[in-house]
Amino acid sequence: MTLTHPPTIPVPTGTRRLLAAAGPGLVDHERTHGPLPAVGPAVIDEIARAGVEGRGGAGFPLARKLAAIARQGGTARTRGRSGPLVVANGAEGEPASRKDAVLLRRSPHLVLDGAVVAALATGATEAVVATSAGLAPVVRQALAERRDPVRVTVRALPHAGFTAGEASALASAVAGGPGVPQDRVVRLSERGPGRRPTLVSNVETLAQAALVARYGAEWTRGVGSAAAPGTRLVTVSDVRDPDTAVVLETAGGAVLGDLLVASRLDRADPRRAQAVLVGGWGGTWVPATALDATLDAPGLAPWGASPGAGVLAVLGADTCPVVTTARIATALAGASAGRCGPCVNGLPGIAEQLTALAGGRPTRDVEHLVSLVDGRGACHHPDGVARMVRSAMHVFREDVLAHRSGRCLVGGVR
Amino acid sequence: MSREEVALHVDWTRCRGRGLCTEVFAARLARDEWGFPLARDGGATRDVPVLPEERAAAEDAVALCPLQALRLTAR
Lengths: 414, 75
What we know:
The complex is a heterodimer.
Chain A: H1 26-33, H2 43-50, H3 62-78, E1 85-90, H4 99-106, H5 108-122, E2 126-132, H6 136-144, E3 151-157, H7 167-174, E4 198-202, H8 203-220, E5 231-238, E6 241-251, H9 256-262, E7 273-278, E8 284-287, H10 297-300, E9 311-316, H11 321-334, H12 341-358, H13 366-373, H14 381-395, H15 397-404
Parallel strand pairs in A: 1-2, 1-4, 2-3, 5-9
Antiparallel strand pairs in A: 5-6, 7-8, 7-9
Chain B: E1 6-10, H1 20-24, E2 29-31, E3 37-39, E4 47-50, H2 55-64, E5 70-74
Antiparallel strand pairs in B: 1-4, 1-5, 2-3
């Protein structure tokens, strides 16, 4: 993936927290946030009260992960094993997301603070920031400016593809392994690579934890909705071209349509939007009629969607949704790590059938193929493809019907 | 774990669809169109629930898998 410098824009409905510092250096960071206060295991309860959930896609509560690691770390030490390891996930394999790159470039010290907070909370003596080769120097530069109570290092990932950021793949890469998804019967938090209890957490999630450690849960909940307290980073783009992306920091639970307007992207104008792919390429299509929905779990539940990695990829009214879905499915098939049979066989099959449908040619039952990949892999990559394709077949059912009879409802761009 | 609830865990990174498991544990497993084991109940096949009376067949499937892609896990 090419590295871009997406513009960031102050959102009228938003709040500057993660991106508040004037520059990426330590001086600007401490001028804005002050030094990191002393932190111990009690911060886990504060993070729980603040409601910090994972920003990498799965939305798992950070406090529960931290508590599990802290518990397992104690067990590991009494058995003479190595203590826990914290991995800050800055791989950003999601093709439509640019938020982690913006965060690492703009506020690397907040991410590093977050990694330190996670380490001190769990009794870990080491933290690793894993990111693309392009962003690693940014983090190294920030590290050179500071002294931390735990060892913090940077790991440049040789290829930050789609599955590189999957937790077991990332943990494997950090431990010097192949960096592909691993089969797991034991949780990483219990026993990761090198038998160490391992926390893998998205860089934005950790940066949010750094804010909670400084300002507390009540302050965190001062903005955002009850279901999505605080702020979150959102990437708005034209679904056909992720490089058009704009990254916003917004209050949690913002209205989808407002976020599209706030992006000031011509291609994201709600009046010309047909649908939005929410969460990521392995996310869920939401029709433009639902742009009054909020970007939080209750707001998106009627569509079976979730905020995921904060991606809003907009499909313009002049673009065929069947062609677009086929293109994304093809890209996702190509992004498979190639480890698991159903993914290796099923994803290209789905992509082929959708491509045939896009061209108005007869196809096999796509839904059947989708059912053969869902939940049948070591990682959740095929599950995401299943989710995206199922939502497309539902939201764009009129278009799908038209294509089955060799027509296309969109006269414009194919 | 003789009396507790168990599941048959498929390590998809090892499975190559040889299909022995679908023969010895046919009560639960069918083959998909590529030969990979597919839970007959239509559920996801990372972990297939195993009833106590199916335990012996599931253990055979684990033992016979040439790729060592199966194991029984506590549910």
